Amino acid sequence: MKVAVAGCCHGALDKMYETLELLQRRHNVRPDLLLCCGDFQAVRNEADLRCMAVPAKYRHMQTFYRYYSGEKKAPVLTVFIGGNHEASNHLQELPYGGWVAPNIYYLGYAGVVRFRGVRIGGISGIFKSHDYRKGHFECPPYNQQTIRSAYHVRNIEVFKLKQLKRPIDIFMSHDWPRSIYHYGNKKQLLKMKSFFRQEVESNTLGSPAASELLQHLKPTYWFSAHLHVKFAAFMQHETNSKEELPKATKFLALDKCLPHRDFLQIIDVEHDPNAGDSLEYDAEWIAILKATNSLVNVTQNSWNMPENNGLHAKWDYSVTEEAIKEVLEELNHDLKIPCNFTLTAACYDPSKPQKNMEPVHTINPQTTEFCAQFGLTDINDRIQQAKEESSGRGECEEEEEEEMDSTGSAEEPSEYNTDNSGLSSFNPDEIMLDEEGGDEDLSTCSVDPSPDHPPEFSTSFSDIRVMPDSMAVSSDDATDSNNEELEKSGGSRQGEERSPTERSLKRIGADENGNSGVKKIKRRNQAIYAAEDEDK
């Protein structure tokens, strides 16, 4: 079957779907499935905009709300993971995954599903070591710490995924697995993104947690986004025994969703021709969720997952064939995910803007139904209970927030000693996200669909690359030889790195690192918000 893979969507659903329709008209190629690797931005209304970790001036409603309201419907089944620029309050309603709109499915904090016999897994968010060992404690309304920590990967999700034993066909992460750049055309990558050099040479670019999963799961394909550059790699995995067959992963990072950018890829994936066309639960994953349910943590306390170190009575939570069989019997061997999408928030109305709408903590009926069916803990219900208990004891949330160490300095050392979500040096494709960015008044925001990129796609068909084989990645791509894909996108980006705006931003970054008197600046990768001229 044909699978379309997209990088950072940034709410531009109309752009993605109309580009796919253009592909069908011009080349008679119709994807059976669309995968999106994060920064999807499922923004329903103005309150959701407040929960997106970007300065207020970059908060645009975009077009997702039209699919949420039912005004439009996704023309192809879409499965996505979360990134670091999301309506976190919306995605938090679905910690185990669920429908955010008809035909658009979110994988949750971590998840595995099946489509036509193909196993698709993913993990949402980006890696930050100081939050990695905490529970999912955040809930709206967020403060300046939690609006960011809400999308940070947690060790429990990685632990769950590491219990998988059956082969994974496709896996998605937002940030790149650390070290993956050593398996592709590193020279060309650094030619296009010279500011990556320090992290690449020190081997700190990307997520160590994702790298751990890559080595454990050994999926056939691994797709990422986040760094706004297309990059292919081919990783041959080491075998654990002479009997084990060699495995390799074809890695592909996608660019951002903008005109004239290579943000979509079409691949052919082997599938089960006898399987149905519905998205399905994965029985092994459900069994793992049941087995690890006792490990759910909704506090800020840091803790390590069980391991074979003499401190835990149980450390192996992988499931038996019998446990998987029990799940199948519970479902009467019908693994089809129910189409039970439900509106849980008011939808944006362009004729009646509500700029002062505040986010609320919502328990989604899909999650309630899922947890009841499989005997799982509803994380949001547990968070609400914890808040009520805290309030009942007379504890003050504001004091707790002030005491929270957002740097992680009071924690025990993380198992990963580098706090790097993918990019710590200056990146011209980023905007500056200062400490006060999240509390700016929405009255300064545009909530209309962004006018910067009108829906004219006849001139932007170069955004798509159709790959007739399973994937155009060979051992040649793992050398520093000529890489046509990277050359094409690299040629148009040399001017970007030397633009006056970027030189100005670079000076800001230098002041931050060199002068203690300069206000601290936090960076987040979001090239989608760069100036319009930069992308022409």
UniProtKB/TrEMBL annotation:
Residue ranges with Basic and acidic residues bias: 385-395, 485-510
UniProt subcellular location: Nucleus
CDD domains: MPP_Dbr1_N (cd00844)
Feature: compositional bias, Polar residues: 415-427
GO cellular component terms listed in the entry, alphabetical order: nucleus
GO terms under biological process: mRNA splicing, via spliceosome
Main location: nucleus
Composition bias, Acidic residues: 396-405, 431-442
InterPro entries (alphabetical): Calcineurin-like_PHP, DBR1_C, Dbr1_N, Metallo-depent_PP-like
Keyword set, alphabetical order: Hydrolase, Iron, Manganese, Metal-binding, mRNA processing, Nucleus, Zinc
Pfam families, alphabetized: DBR1 (PF05011), Metallophos (PF00149)
Residue span(s) of domain Lariat debranching enzyme C-terminal: 235-380
Region (Disordered): 385-536
Molecular function terms from GO: metal ion binding; RNA lariat debranching enzyme activity
Coiled coil (UniProt feature): none
Cofactor: Mn(2+); Fe(2+); Zn(2+)
Family membership noted in the UniProt record: Belongs to the lariat debranching enzyme family.
Name of this protein: DBR1 enzyme
Designated gene of the protein: Dbr1
